[in-house]
Amino acid sequence: MTTREILVTSALPYANGAIHLGHMLEHIQSDIWVRAMRMAGHTVHYVCADDAHGSAIMLRAEKEGITPQALIDAVWKEHSSAFRDFGVAYDHYSSTHTDANRELTARIWLALKAAGHTQSRPVKQLYDPVKAMFLPDRYIKGECPKCHSKDQYGDGCEVCGTAYTPADLINPYSVVSGATPELKESTHFFVKLADFEVMLKGWLAQRRDAGGLQAEVVNKLQEWFADGLRSWDVSRDAPYFGFEIPDAPGKFFYVWVDAPVGYLAAFKELCDSGRNGLRPDDLERFIRADSKTEMVHFIGKDIIYFHTLFWPAMLHGAGLRTPSAVNVHGFLTVNGAKMSKSRGTFIEARTYLDHLDPDYLRYFFATQLVPSLADVDLDMKAFEDRVNSHLVGKWVNIASRCAGFVHKFFGGKLAAQMPASESAAYAAAAQKLSTCAALYEARDYAAAMRAIIEVADEANAYVATNAPWTMAKDESKRDALHVVCTLAINYFRLLTVWLAPVVPATAARAFAFLGESPTRFDAAIQPRLGASIREFSALATRIDTNKIEAMIEASKENLQAVAPATPAAPTPAPQATVATISIDDFAKLDLRIGTVLECGFVEGSDKLLRFLLDAGDLGQRQIFSGIRASYGEPEKLVGRKVVFIANLAPRKMRFGVSEGMILSAGSGGSDLHLLDADAGAKSGMPVK
């Protein structure tokens, strides 16, 4: 077997919040892969870091009255401890705000610049004269130039749907200070992605054919090439928390420039430390264009473009190697729906750890993970049943049923040999599980777990058929009892070796019981005979339903609103003049009840939420609604009934097709409130 040397990374969690189970899905997936590849005999270096730059970090730190450095330092401690306690064993966990990352980012940028792949040009933006900062569109509001609704964002009206530029707003103001913004010109820097169009198309095809990128990802990326790749704006103006662009005072790299470079910076720090048998000059060996090593990224499907277009273009343009593989996974749902704080299914990693064994979640995720982009559902009942049945009832149960007899009658030692029939049974089981090495590498953990549990079933059937508890009563069957217990313990050992990447902490306890610490899959090819085992103690216990319920309760937000004081009688105000319509005009609207199946943010939009509605007989409807400012946690809206216009002509947007309009009350901006329907209203019912 040819030994490979691989650098593996997981996507960088943003240093602006706690680690939750959605993060853990990816980091557990990559950790299992790393452990399995090492047990297959390969050399793997595993690094990650906090993504620590951007305006969100700056603004949160300002709000909390601390420096951005103090904020990211505190979050780093929380993130790294959460991963560690879930058994995610990084060789080095860093931050993107390091000298190593600053140096490497500048190196790549200057190489791109020297090769002619960058450009600068003036861009007109609105400027806050009080805060002395250029304002992104979401920090500008004003009156819509078409329908004259107040408090609309700078890129489009949430009421009438008109798209415009911030300069088109009537009476615009800065959300940051309230000041009237001024139109000022600023120089921005760009990477000319069009320079890499041919290279990227070839790279994507090569990665797909080599198994380093899913075909469904490559197909999706073709949309970006339809009209030619546009230059990528890679700069932001001060104030901004990040790295200043060399020779460009007051200009900073956009967070997605230095974030992926953080992979290489974390690896540089590992090389400089001398751990893992590495030396400082090993970084260059890994990143040069003709490197014989591999670089493998694990990411979620929401950040595909950055890792499969921008990142390889940057690397190639700087004369460096491109990724060998980008393994993309789907999202995590809980009980069939998006994670929800109100339902207690938006579960932080620390909250889970306060109630349940991390190996249990690792195993359940493994039973669900396949090589595609399919979402993974954490069904709590299935989670409980699968852990109790597979890990406790099928795997650990083998050792617990037989270990006592080995100590009681045979001095804690396994038989020195087994008859041909038992040897053949073990060899067949070992051969069946040898296929799991390829399954692990292909990230088909679900298939690997099925094979493991099939062997566990065979082992338990063997124990049940021979009934060692009955044999123990007959002194004339001592030798046969010794053989049965020896094969059973070896079945347990075989399963432990192949489960070790998935449940490392439990496997470590199992190996301690067995009196060994194998680090390779091939250690299980032959049975272990004549060896001593220790006294058995519980390796895993069944999940108590009450613990799951307690975890969910601990995750719920306090939704009890404080009853408002009785308001004073309002002062009569002059009545507004309302334009009238005829009943025929109203009859043209087909208003319906919809139940929210999904609701989430729209990447690339500061104002939209994406709804998927159950519309009864009308099927499902996707609707984009400009109410993001009013509902910062859209997962809370899942399950809610809303009123929508069903016969509005579909509107094609760059995010997808919107198939209707959801009605809300309010003046716009953050003053928008969805309409409720009584409990008796059903999905698809007409509103009259």
Note down, in words, how this protein is organized.
By secondary structure, the chain is of the alpha+beta class. It has four domains: 5-115 and 200-216 and 253-329, 3-Layer(aba) Sandwich (Rossmann fold); 118-191, Methionyl-trna Synthetase, domain 2 (Beta Complex), CATH 2.170.220.10; 379-524, Isoleucyl-tRNA Synthetase, Domain 1; 583-674, Beta Barrel (OB fold (Dihydrolipoamide Acetyltransferase, E2P)), CATH 2.40.50. The protein contains 20 helices and 26 strands. It has a five-stranded parallel sheet with strand order 3-2-1-13-14, sandwiched between helices. It has a five-stranded antiparallel sheet with strand order 20-19-18-21-24, with no helix packed on it. Strand 18 (591-601) and strand 19 form a beta hairpin. The longest helix is centred in the middle third of the chain and has 31 residues, at 380-410. The chain is globular and about 100 Å long.
